[in-house]
Amino acid sequence: MKVFYSSDESFETNFNELLGRGKMDIDSVSNIVSGLLNEIKNKGNSALMAQIAKFDRWEPKHDDELLVSTDDMKRAYDALDPLLRDALHLSYERIENYHQKLMPKSWFEFEKNGTMLGQKVTPVDRAGLYIPGGKAAYPSSLLMNAIPAIVAGVEEIVVCTPTPDNEINELLLAACHLCKVTKVFKVGGASAIGAMAYGTESIPKVDVITGPGNIFVATAKKLVFGEVNIDMIAGPSEIGILADESAREDYLAIDLLSQAEHDEMASSILITTDSELANKVSDQVEEFLSKLSREAIARKSIEERGAIIIASNMDEAINLMNQIAPEHLEIMTKNPMDLLSKIKHAGAIFLGENTPEPIGDYMAGPNHTLPTGGTAKFYSPLSVEHFLKKSSIISMSKEGIRQIGEACAMIAYTEGLTAHEESVRIRLRD
Hints:
Layout: E1 2-5, H1 11-19, H2 26-43, H3 45-55, H4 70-78, H5 82-100, E2 107-110, E3 116-123, E4 126-130, H6 139-152, E5 156-161, H7 170-178, E6 183-186, H8 189-198, E7 208-210, H9 215-224, E8 229-230, E9 238-243, H10 249-260, E10 267-272, H11 275-289, H12 295-305, E11 306-310, H13 314-324, E12 328-332, H14 337-340, E13 348-351, H15 357-362, E14 388-395, H16 398-414, H17 418-428
Parallel strand pairs: 1-11, 4-5, 4-7, 5-6, 7-8, 9-10, 9-12, 10-11, 12-13
Antiparallel strand pairs: 2-3, 3-14
């Protein structure tokens, strides 16, 4: 791994490269994606099937071939190893319990004059979940996207996932059965986003689309935003780790690699105050790499997008990490809670040496669909809130409008909106 000091003359250049790690050249594929979306918008299923044949190398003959059978989902679930089935159920329970705590409530407040103000929280009618395929299929992503929608009370959940050569991941099907999802469609990429955003003869139009994907998926989500809501524009996975001299080099090394094995474009960044630890971690990473099943992917990620920074002190380390705003942040120090208040930007924060990032991917409970590429400065993790909308509630009493109506009419008059003004004054004269 690249190791450099914050005091190096070249540090600013190297650090700026890390800050730009999540940039996706969306402009380079926008025309292609826009064309695919327009085809689906205008031609529906016929365009969708042509795109599936082109990108996933199989050709649906009939509309109903796009929909996965619920019998196939149940068979996949029944065929699970009992220990794996128990693990999925435990994951489901923990994710559900965590997200139930996040549910906002409708509220109503009455003023002394009889006026009532409040907020009504309502789930969207239909949610679309994009679950990636490609190099790996992630049933855990199904749980992390479906369960918040279920907790929020969404009536209908639609899942789209790519099936290259018409082959679908059996564990994903089992997870769909566990979540009681009945509408799973075999379509991926920008095509899936277009189908869920505009609707086709087979795939219903949804209100919100969530879930990660490649640059084509991210671009499609950006282009359809406004037609539907989206969760975020997510890029390659990443981890940042803050560590002092108390941290174990083997823990740090394998945790860095836990993200590197996702994708060649993934980023793994360690910032430490201990130069000896930095060198030990670099050596340990190399030792672990040869043992990984996805060595080639992890090695390219670590070599091209991984880094170890040696900071002069922990305050500087924290400042640098806040600028990075990582998707996942591990704090591996003697007293990690002491640093928590200083962390401003991170998708998920993992405190202490017994809290590796993968525990958050599968089992802890908080969502693993997180902002990447520095967008943790303004995005939040996927949650029930993405599947809810809020309506303001206002009910004025006679006395209430008399108390504030004149001020309201004055502002309307000042803005030149005389119908607004008269709408209030006509009530004041009664």
